[in-house]
Amino acid sequence: MGKQDKEQAGVMDRLRKLMENGKYRKILIAVGIGAILLIFLSSYFPKGDKAAEPEAPAETAASLTAEEYTRELEASLTQIIEGIEGAGATKVMVTIEKGVEQVYATEQKKSTQTTQDNLSGEGEKNQAKDDVETNYIIVEDADGAQKALAVTQVQPVVKGVVIVCEGGDNPSVQQRVTDAVTTALNLSSARVCVVKSQS
What we know:
Layout: H1 3-20, H2 22-42, H3 57-62, H4 66-82, E1 90-96, E2 101-104, E3 106-119, E4 123-136, E5 138-140, E6 146-148, E7 150-154, E8 158-165, H5 171-185, E9 192-196
């Protein structure tokens, strides 16, 4: 008999002696019932580590607020402009017309109601009335919650951009920065202002 077999036999003997002792048997039964109750009750409590689950990329994009969009845009523009020769340290402010808009899937139900009027001496007059009912398409997520089905997301429209940089008083730097911003955001140059920062 090997050492491992002897150890297993010793453990089994100790367990047998514990089971024969009435006090320990009651404790083991109580612990077993408690474990079963905990497993049963855990199904009624919400899971605490939902944040640890990775979000789908579409959900992340859909949850982007106008403020977050503006901050990300300002950070991207700052990085681009600081890479332009002569621009130096840069601060950027972006103003937008409206927030991020979700476009939801809809379905339309069209019904036509026709009525006939008998006019005295003039014959009949037919009238048709069209009714269109538009409803959002509702889907159920994994948690059982119902929500409208998002089709796409419309990003905010940029109204203007103000850039304050060290080289903002140099006309060639102003032109290069303006060209970069107007190209990146598809804006007219009238909506972009480049000025020199304080020394």
